[in-house]
Design a protein that fits this description.
Elements: H1 3-22, E1 33-34, E2 40-46, H2 49-64, E3 69-78, H3 84-101, E4 114-122
Antiparallel strand pairs: 1-2, 2-4, 3-4
């Protein structure tokens, strides 16, 4: 094999690897389960309710591709260390104390504090 062919092959391989890595998503994808009557189920998990909702909807949109996601039902659940209201209050007090003393605020949230479960159809 000539040097030109080796270089061309190596270049093509590197270009393909770069193209494939550019397609990878940086957000975690939740598994999607198909149920009866063309209904799908997935759960988004995150440290905030909004992020958990977005994660679930992103997984649904990947499943439906170019079709529209129709949410049949949804449920949000908080799994934090403290109850939701107390956790917010502690976080706010910690932020105020941290800004006064310059120590920063404690972070009591975890990446799985919120679960957003949806059943959906593709239409």
């Amino acid at each position: 094999m000539t040097t030109f062919k080796k270089t061309a092959t190596l270049t093509a391989t590197l270009a393909a690897a770069l193209a494939l890595s550019a397609c990878q998503s940086t957000t975690p994808s939740s598994p999607v389960i198909q149920r009866a009557n063309s209904v799908y189920e997935t759960t988004g998990i995150a440290d905030t309710k909004v992020k958990a909702q977005q994660n679930a909807i992103d997984s649904a949109q990947k499943t439906c591709r170019s079709k529209q996601v129709i949410i049949v039902n949804d449920t949000a659940r908080y799994n934090g260390i403290l109850d939701e209201r107390t956790g917010r209050m502690v976080g706010q007090v910690g932020a105020v104390v941290g800004s006064i003393f310059g120590t920063g605020s404690p972070d009591l949230s975890r990446k799985d504090d919120y679960e957003y479960m949806i059943n959906f159809r593709c239409q």
